[in-house]
Amino acid sequence: MIMPMPMSPDSMNNNSMDMDDTATHMTFYGAKMWWFCLRGGQTAALECTLLALVFVFSLAVAVEILAAPPIKPRMRPLSGGLIQAAVYAVRMALAYLVMLSVMSFNVGIFITVVVGHAVGCFFVKYRAIAAVYRAADAAAPLKA
């Protein structure tokens, strides 16, 4: 006969939290309450929500832009390595902030992050293609 495990002493204590207080959403949902927009227990206005979405969008764009290597890296090895390491550290910090935002399981934040990454990728690719196009124009002979 299999016996159930006894409950821990902390869970039997009356001072412990109820299960309702510790429950989290494990699926995507559309929340109207944002943890950083709370004021006195009430949800903030639409402006605060839009500001939060713009902030997360900007983080996602910045992560993509910082992931692109510089076009003309002409530096000494030590200074270039230090600068690239600093940019990498900033990029990883921003990437982890974006990841934590997505882990809120909010559909609006998820869509905003995906669009932000796409826009950031567009900026990076546009810059690279424009550089190649300018180089091709400079190398082409002028037509008279």
From TrEMBL:
GO terms for cellular component: plasma membrane. Its main location: membrane. The chain crosses the membrane at residues 44-66, 78-99, 105-124. InterPro entries: Cop_transporter. One of its GO terms (molecular function) is copper ion transmembrane transporter activity. The keyword Isomerase does not apply. This is Copper transport protein. It comes from Olea europaea subsp. europaea. The lineage of its organism: Eukaryota, Viridiplantae, Streptophyta, Embryophyta, Tracheophyta.
